[in-house]
Write a structure and sequence with these properties.
Helices cover 35% and strands 0% of the residues. With 69 residues, it is an all-alpha fold. The protein starts with 13 loop residues before the first helix and ends in a 6-residue tail after the last helix.
Length: 69
């Protein structure tokens, strides 16, 4: 488990943390390969089958408002 204790003296700077994360991501860009774009094709309705949702997930979604919580 990671030790997440903070022992700094000043306030946290979320923008500085975000900037560091963005910098890390920018340095990783050359290592990521983007897939070739392909046009998506329509799926035949005969290939679409029902979606099964576990009861616990269905209850969670039922309890959510239409516009999010």
């Amino acid at each position: 488990m990671t030790n997440l204790e903070f022992h700094g003296t000043g306030p946290l700077d979320p923008d500085g943390e975000l900037a560091a994360l963005r910098g890390d991501c920018a340095r990783m860009v050359p290592h990521w390969a983007a897939p070739e774009k392909s046009a998506s094709r329509p799926v035949s309705p005969s290939l679409i089958h029902g979606v099964r949702v576990p009861p616990a997930s269905a209850r969670l979604l039922e309890a959510m408002s239409d516009y999010g919580d």
